[in-house]
Every structure is written in C-alpha cells, then in structure tokens.
Amino acid sequence: MPSKRITKILQTKGPPDTNRAGGASTNPEIENFVSDGWNNVALLPPQVTSSRLLGARAFDRAYVPIHLPDDVFSGSAMTDAGLHSTARFPPPRCHLNTRKSLRARIIHWGTNAERESRMLWIMGSAGAGKSALAQSLAEEFKGLGILGAALFFSRSNHRDDPDRIIATLAYQLCFREPYANIVAHFVRDDPMLMKKDRTTQFKHLIIQSTNIFMITIPQRVEDPEYGQSTHITVERPSPSITINTQVLLGPKPPLVVFLDGLDECRSEEAQCEFIDLICAQVRQTYSLLWIICSRPEPHLERAFRKAEAEGLCWVEELRIDDPEAQSDVERYLRDEFERIARKYQDDLGEDTWPPKDIFDKIVGASSGHFLFATTLIRYLDQSHSTPRSQLSAIVAAIDGVPLPSGVTNPLAYIDNLYLEVLNRLDERIRSEALELLAICMACPPLPVLCLSQLLQTDVSTILDTLFSLHSIISVPYDENLVEEPLRFYHASFTDFLTNPDRSGIFSQRDLSAHRYRIIEACFHVLASSRTSYANGLIWDSSRFSAANPSNLSVFHGLLTFAATHVWDICTRIRDPKLGFVRSTVAGFDYRLLKSVGNAVPPQQFVKFLQWLYSVTKDIPALSTFVRTSAQSDLDFQFIKYCAWVSQPLDMDLEYRGEEVENIPRYALVGFGEKTALILVIPDCVMIYSIEEIGDV
C-alpha cells in the first residue's frame, strides 16, 4: 500500500507555495516541462505530482494509448546505424583498461546534475579511436539506463543522409516507454511530419517529445516506509479515465544521445544545421545530453568553438601524442600479442614472441595511433598465414621495404583511409594542396603565419588549401595561428605519401624541390636586416581573433626557425644542383650568424659543414670554401687566434650523430673579408669575423 508520505502528496489540491522553504528546486538545472498545446512548452513547479499533471495535454500524449503505425519510420530511419546493428558488427570498442580517465570523466559528466554544459564534442584525427570510444561510452550509458539513442555515420556505407537523422534518433527513442505513444500523437495530428523539413521534425520529434517524455515517464519511487517501489492508481478528474502510473517526485536524469562521425554526414551545411538545432535545444531544456564525435573539420570547429564560448559545449580532443594514448596503445599491443601467442602456441613455440626489439619498433611506429595498431593486429591475426610471416611483412612495411610478390600490404586499411581523404580534395586545388603537404613534410613544423611569410603566400590561401585536410594535419584555430605549428597527426601519413606504391597519383616521393624553396627562404631571412624585413611583412589581420601579432615578433619567429632548422634541411638534399650551391649556400655571408649563434644547434651545424664541404670540394671555384687549413694570410690570423684552444673539424670523417666533443672544433667558411671563423662547442656555435679577432 502507498506510504503516508506519498498519499499526502496525492491529496495535494494545488501547486505548492514556492515561497515556502523547500518550495523551489534546489538545482537550477531542474526544469519540469508540460505542453500547453502542440507548439508551446511551459514551466511547471517541480513539486507538482502526477495527479496534477493528469489534466494536462502532455499527459494525454504520453498515456492515452494511440497505436504508432509500423511503417512510420519505414524508409526514414537508418536502422543499420544503431549501437548494435548487424551492419556494424563487430563494432570497434575501447580495449580493456584503455581511455580510462577520459571515459570516467565523461560518465561523471553524463550522470552529474552539476555539469556546466549539455553537449560534448569529441574531436580527433582520422584513426584516433573516436568510434571505439563512442561505442564503449554508449554501452556504458545504456547499462546505466540513460542512453537515449546512438547514431554512427558512415559515408562509405551510405549512413550519411541528413534527412534521415532525426527519424533515426526518434526510432531508437521509441523503444523507451512512453516515447512511442508521444510520437504517435504527433504523427496522428500531422501525417506528413516525416516528410517535413529538419527543423520542424527536430522541434516535434526531439525537443517537444523528449520534454513531454521527461515529465511523464513512470519512475520507480522508493518508499522509505516499506523499502520498495510503490505503484499508485490515480484518477483523472475529467473525463474519467483510470490510469496506472507512479508519483512524479522530480525530474528524470537527461538521456544521452550519440552522433558519431558527424563529419561523415552528407553536406557541411546540414552538419552545421544540426549543431545549431542541438544548441537551441540545450539552451532551452535539460532533457537530452549530446555527445558528438567527429574529425576536426574547420566548419565544425568554428561551430563547436562558438558553442563552447557560450558555455553550451565541452570540447575534448583525442590527441595521439597524449601520454595516456601512448600508454594505452602499448597496453593494447602487448595484450593482443600475448593473445595471438597463446592462439598459435604450436607454431610459435615457447620462445618469447615477438622479440622485444620488434615489439618496440611496432609500439614506436604506432605512436599512440589506435587505428594503426589495430590494423597491424588484424593483419597479424589472419588465418591464411602464420604469425611469423605476417610479422615479417609488418616490419618490412614499417621500414618502407618493398614487400615480396604476393604478400598483401599490412597497412592497406590505413592507406584506404588516407586515399579517401585525398580523393575528397577539390580538383581545382588538389595540386596546391599536395604541394603544401609536401612543403610541410620537407621542413619541421612551422606556425601558419610564419609559413605564409616564408613562402610569400597569404595566410588565407594556406588555410583554404588545407580546408579539407584537417583530419590528417592539425591546423590551429585562429587565435593559435601565430604560435601553434602545423603538424601531421601521425607519421604513417607522411610514410604513405612518400611511397608511390601506396599513395599512387598522390605520391610526393621527391621533396627536393620543396626543400630548395624552404632553404632559399631561410637563407634570405638570415641575410636580411631585422627592421627592413619586418617592415615588409604583410598579413590579413582579420584572420586573428586574438591580438594581432607585431611584425618584429613574427620576424623573430622566422629568424629562430631558420637558424635552427635550415642546416638539417640542407643535409637531406643529395647531389644538390650546382646553381643552388653557388648562389644560395655558398653565396651566404656566414658572419651574419653571429647574432643568432645561440639558436644554431651544434650537432646539426657540424653535419651541415661536413655536407657543405663534400658538395663544394670538387667545384674548382669553391673547393676551399669550407676549410681547416690556411689558404691566405687572413686564414693564418684566424687559425692563430683559435688553434691554442681548439682543434680542426675533421671534414672527411662521416658524421654519425654523436654528440659534439668537449674540445672545441673550428672551421673557416667563405672567402676574403667575408670569411667566418666557426667555433663549435657542445652547447653553442660561435662566429667570428676578422674585425673581431684583430691583428694577433
């Protein structure tokens, strides 16, 4: 029988006095909604019970039985896009004990009424593990009883129609009582509802239906007197209808809705429209929480960053270089190798497999990239060959060694992913995009603003060219264009592009031309007057939402980049063109490095000097451009100045990357008055001109 407390609530004759203590909700997020018609939603004090709601139209929609036609979602809902769809079997999932801290934070967010936002955007590069995370989270929320719906987009599998998204979500929500009955009322009043525009469908099938659902769904009430759930029969005053229901003592926890792979939805316009619709919903109601996963496409980033600024959205990036991701991938690989070793114990024997050096190589190549790791494990576990032979093919693929005839490519799945991204490039900018990717591969990471000045290209041109490539290269948001460099999410993409057997028409195997361009630009910066070069820098300040950077600060970034990296870029060019050597490398006045000597890395500069010596020694006019023995009286002065504290740099000894010795090494570079004395010590490079050493 009902407890005295519940009976008293049922006998309430009107809304409680909200001015009394306890009369108002203690949680500002708690909102009870009741429909006063088809279109409007009004607030109702949270203490009003089910007996008070019985006269409301909203309660009619939930509990007056109306049959939902079996074909109402036929042709509209993507039934193969759900959490446990056979079309997605087996779905990707987070490996045991991976993404633990992130999953815990998201579950806490979904179950904590004190959350600050009602929408979560999980962004990450292609293959970062977004779908696996979404699947695992959705299953956890389902276990908690608060999963509303989950839609997994896939362009290649035709799960990408924007006009079927709302129907798909509504179809899944209909499995929760009494949502189907609510939808049936809407469809009865408007039989063409499923044919109407997305905004109208979203309003009725998502916003209004879930609002009504949240205040009328039966809730099990724990009776403190009897220690059990209490079911109560109440009567609707007029007309007389007896309904078995339960007391509504407060709001229900919001349901969680997943949209995984929103960037796979057909039409960027539709993607942004859904974000706008969801933002409108979370501004008004508490009934749903949204978790949206996608690649960081620029139009999506703009939309979600705007929502984040309004306090509507929590943004979480799945970074491949995150320590947790690195550790998780290593754990996954270790567990999977142990599983495969047990499975094929008869073939592999008792020896430790794989060998530690091979395991470390695979962990290093994976470098936090879940798709890379899972692709290799999937290949390794194929039944048509032995794990040993499969492992050999994997190592060859990682090392870039051509595979034997008849051996399938272990990285084929990843290659297809990259080909899919590149095939989406607009043909009008495809060549420019590939050239820009090649330039990014030819030099160390550089901020967009600095790169634009180095290449004498407008910032907007670079950003527009990379517009469709945000899933493989990290392009900073506007306020970070000055400091945050462009970077490839994973080395597997650059390996893919430089291997013509894998990338085909997109191959960028020869990076020499792009290196020439970068080197020439760097030497130009190093040779320029700070003031004159800085004054000549021009960019569109409207691209920067933060404070517009000063010309001098940009020049300083360029100067530091050039002094730090140009030497290594030079050494990557084999058999350089004679004209390039004469005009660019040997044409530079190395005395100018004095002002940036602290930025010049000793190891790389030693290797550069040895490279420069090797490419000039056989050119008659430049055969002594780099030297350690005196060729003139001027040279004698230099050597006399430094010989007592240093030794000559050995130009014929192949540089193997060892640390520079503690003993300073010297070399002379240049001719005549432009000769520079180079002293290399472990932590810096010192540059002297003849004017500085004087007549010793």
UniProtKB/TrEMBL annotation:
Report residue spans for region: Disordered: 1-25
Ordered alphabetically, the record's keywords are: Repeat
Q: Which InterPro entries match?
A: NPHP3-like_N (IPR056884), P-loop_NTPase (IPR027417)
List residues of the Nephrocystin 3-like N-terminal domain.
Answer: 108-206
Q: Which Pfam families match?
A: NPHP3_N (PF24883)
Keyword Repeat attributed:
yes
| Protein name as catalogued | Nephrocystin 3-like N-terminal domain-containing protein
* Organism expressing this protein natively: Macrolepiota fuliginosa MF-IS2
